[in-house]
Specification:
This protein is an all-alpha fold. It is 73% helix and 0% strand. The longest helix has 28 residues, at 126-153.
């Protein structure tokens, strides 16, 4: 693989190099997800879904290639999964700093603890294995935030 292709793959997989942060690269990647979510949060739900889907598909491709380049299965520097997972987490969640902060904390909690069946999903090979547990953590976070929103609005 040529040098420019490797650079593009790592730029995507490492979340604009947030994954190279020396401490808690997954948290740094999630912060990139927060910034992206902030930019796209006011788009239509269809556009939000399309962009999130694009992050997931491109993320699977880039994460799988980056794993080969880095020579390590699910390297901590690969954070595109946290970015895509956070976008999933915040889909159709009410706007507000409280929901954003709760989404961040819940997503990191679900991503780190990997409740059933998320832990076993990461055993899948390649980019899918890297991405799917974080997408699942995003789904768990979204469900939790939707329930919180429902209870608060009553």
């Amino acid at each position: 693989m040529n040098r420019p292709a490797r650079a593009v793959i790592l730029f995507i997989a490492q979340g604009a190099y947030a994954g190279k942060f020396p401490v808690a690269p997954g948290t740094a990647g999630t912060l990139v997800g927060v910034l992206i979510q902030y930019v796209i949060r006011n788009t239509s739900p269809l556009l939000y879904i399309a962009m999130t889907f694009l992050f997931c598909i491109i993320g699977m491709w880039a994460a799988g290639r980056a794993e080969i380049i880095l020579g390590r299965k699910d390297s901590p520097s690969i954070v595109i999964d946290e970015i895509a997972g956070f976008l999933v987490a915040m889909f159709m969640v009410p706007a507000g700093w409280g929901y954003l902060a709760a989404g961040f904390v819940l997503f990191r909690l679900f991503d780190i603890t990997k409740p059933w069946p998320l832990y076993s999903l990461q055993a899948l090979n390649g980019g899918l294995g890297i991405m799917i547990d974080d997408i699942g953590a995003g789904i768990y976070t979204n469900i939790t935030l939707q329930l919180i929103s429902f209870v608060i609005s009553r």
